[in-house]
């Protein structure tokens, strides 16, 4: 069971080395992360983007890019399409977002002609190493599905559970978090949480343990749960936090990063290959962990 993000590096090294295609790779932090990933022998890399700018940044940062293939494409949308095409043709096994918008990359991924779209829901999974929490904390979905309905939440959970299983977490604890920990007919998120927990108990959602609704405090703190009289095997042992909407996930994720100094890794799952996707403001270390995560998930 993986308990630290740095363990992703070792786990990725145990797998057959894969090739990553980076769309719009002309970004300092992205290049630093990719160079380190190649140096750690996690991946081979194909850089798609403004070649002149990529080489200039490499020289400025003192990075050795000589062992990487560079595909020259200055146009952002064309760079995204070319990176996706590399995966479609089998020259790369997964993707990474460089200095372009998420929507621009996903447009290329979801292009029917690219062949990466599946019948599965695409969702974003972030993994946080929070100094005050005793294990890795998964957060989903704060970057992909804006306002998920019950059927969407089932897909989001299934995607996150697959990621957890890949990290050797055999039976992840899932907490659909709400503003309150009781079912309130006026609050749809609590109704969905109760339905998800029931579906899990009846074997309709497998590979995990779901209990909800739970508020954030009792999802991550046994003491808080005990204080409120909540008896739950998930309380205080949560692996996966399922948020009710994209705003909640976005705010919580950035709070963990900026207030709690958490390290993180992020990926979109549900397509035919993982798509490494973290904020353009995230650190090189976060991007390195995300590349390792993507390599593990291929």
Q: How are the elements arranged and paired?
A:
Elements: H1 7-14, E1 18-23, H2 28-39, E2 43-49, H3 51-61, E3 69-72, H4 76-88, E4 94-97, H5 102-109, E5 123-129, E6 137-140, H6 150-166, E7 173-178, H7 188-201, E8 209-210, E9 214-215, H8 216-220, H9 222-227, E10 240-242, H10 246-258, E11 263-269, E12 275-276, H11 284-297
Parallel strand pairs: 1-2, 1-4, 2-3, 4-12, 6-10, 7-8, 7-9, 7-10
Antiparallel strand pairs: 5-6, 5-11, 11-12
Helix pairs in contact: 1-11, 2-11, 4-5
Could you characterize the architecture of this molecule?
The protein is of the alpha/beta class. Helices cover 41% and strands 18% of the residues. The protein is built from 11 helices and 12 strands. It has helices at 7-14, 28-39, 51-61, 76-88, 102-109, 150-166, 188-201, 216-220, 222-227, 246-258, 284-297, and strands spanning 18-23, 43-49, 69-72, 94-97, 123-129, 137-140, 173-178, 209-210, 214-215, 240-242, 263-269, 275-276. Strands 1, 2, 3, 4, 5, 6, 7, 8, 9, 10, 11 and 12 form a 12-stranded mixed sheet that branches. Helix 3 (51-61) links the parallel strand 2 (43-49) and strand 3. Helix 1 runs parallel beside helix 11 and helix 4 packs parallel to helix 5. The chain starts with 6 loop residues before the first helix and ends with a helix. The mean pLDDT is 94.
